[in-house]
Amino acid sequence: MSEIPVYMKHDLMIIPRHSLPTGYQFRFFGHQGDRDAWAKIVTKTNEFTDERNAIKRFNEEFSPHTNEAKKRIIFIVTNDGSLVGSATAWFGKWMHEEIGRLHWVEIIPEYQGRELGCPLITEAMSLLRKYHSSAYLKTQKSSQAAIYLYGQLGWYPIIKEEQETFKEN
User: Fold this and answer.
1) What is the pLDDT of residues 77-106, one digit of tens each?
2) Is residue 113 part of a domain?
3) Residue 44 lies in a domain
4) Which among 39, 68, 92, 167 could bridge 54 via Cys, Cβ 3.0 to 4.6 Å?
């Protein structure tokens, strides 16, 4: 069964604040090994079947924009230095206009359920607001928990193109 895309938007005017729990902090992409760490995170969350494919995608999408990546990709880091999550406050085309894009929001499975999701998303939203007045994200209909969480943070679903309708199974 193919995934049904769900697009959501946010005007970035009001961004709720959620702090990371004790023992975690944010840091920007840009340290040695960060590309490989990103690939490991997105592979552990099953976005890719192996890290080689994740690195290929990273190189295609972010390597041409290294300076932007250093300002827009964030990691959640534990006190012992482990990278356990990442999100990207990127950019993309929406109805022929460049706007912000919340992209690659990932927390490795063994750290899910530790109240890291809201802080990660709202931190990325705050970064998006630095560069854009609105943003979009793309998820899948099967990701009901993520859709609910995004909704709680002010994101609302949009049908991107007229032919995109969502059928109930």
Assistant:
1) 999 999 999 999 999 988 889 999 999 999
2) yes
3) yes
4) 39
H or E segment at 151?
A: helix 144-152
| Spatial strand order in the sheet of 83-94 | 24-28, 73-78, 83-94, 97-107, 135-140, 5-10, 156-158
Q: What are the φ and ψ backbone dihedral angles of 123, each rounded to 5 degrees?
A: -65, -45
In a domain, 163, yes or no: no
CA–CA separation, 21 and 25 (whole Å): 8
CATH of the domain at 147: 3.40.630.30
Beta bridge partners of 75: 27, 86
DSSP string, 20-79: PPTTEEEEES-STTHHHHHHHHHHHTTSSSSHHHHHHHHHHHTGGGHHHHHHHEEEEEET
* The model scores a pTM over 0.85: yes
Domain membership of residue 76 as a residue range: 5-158
Quote the tokens at residue 56.
């290929």
DSSP string, 86-148: EEEEEEEEETTEEEEEEEEEEE-GGGTTSS-HHHHHHHHHHHHHHH-S-EEEEEETT-HHHHH
Mean pLDDT of the chain: 92
| Rounded mean pLDDT, 139-152 | 91
Is 90 among the domain residues?
yes
